Amino acid sequence: MACILVVEDEPIVSMQLQESLEAMGHVVPALIASGDDVLGAVLAHKPDLILMDIKLRSFIDGVDAANRLKLVCDLPVIYITAYPSRGSQDRAEKTKPAGYLVKPINDRTLREHIDRALAAAALCAD
Asked: Over the chain, what is the mean pLDDT?
């Protein structure tokens, strides 16, 4: 079981992700809708992993939020997007994400990415 922070500005998508993650046995301490709120949520909840939408309706998008986060801690981030453009993917890759998922996301793929990201993070921690 892992603590996973969901950063997604579409309420229906964030609730679906929360339901899927909780059904897998994970804890979702908060649903964050703004890139501006990511750092505070990470400090408050100390998640093991972040699911981060790239396109957020806030001043800071998901990639910018991940870049800011890397200055403070090295949490694995799995990006999610509905708009898989090469430019967005190139920007995201520079942050060395643990994964990159295109919406709609099925539970099997989500589980595989989370398991892989958590396993890699555990190896780095040892």
From this structure: 92
Using the predicted structure, report yes or no on whether residue 126 has a pLDDT greater than 90: no
What is the full DSSP assignment across the chain?
Answer: --BEEEE-S-HHHHHHHHHHHHHTT-B---EE--GGGHHHHHHHH--SEEEEESS-SSSS-HHHHHHHHHTT----EEEEES---HHHHHHHHTT--SEEEESS--HHHHHHHHHHHHHHHHHHH-
Q: Residue 59 sits in which domain range? A: 4-125
CATH code at position 74:
3.40.50.2300
* Overall number of domains in the chain: 1
Q: Give the pLDDT confidence score for residue 122 in this predicted structure.
A: 79
Region 35-39: mean pLDDT is 94
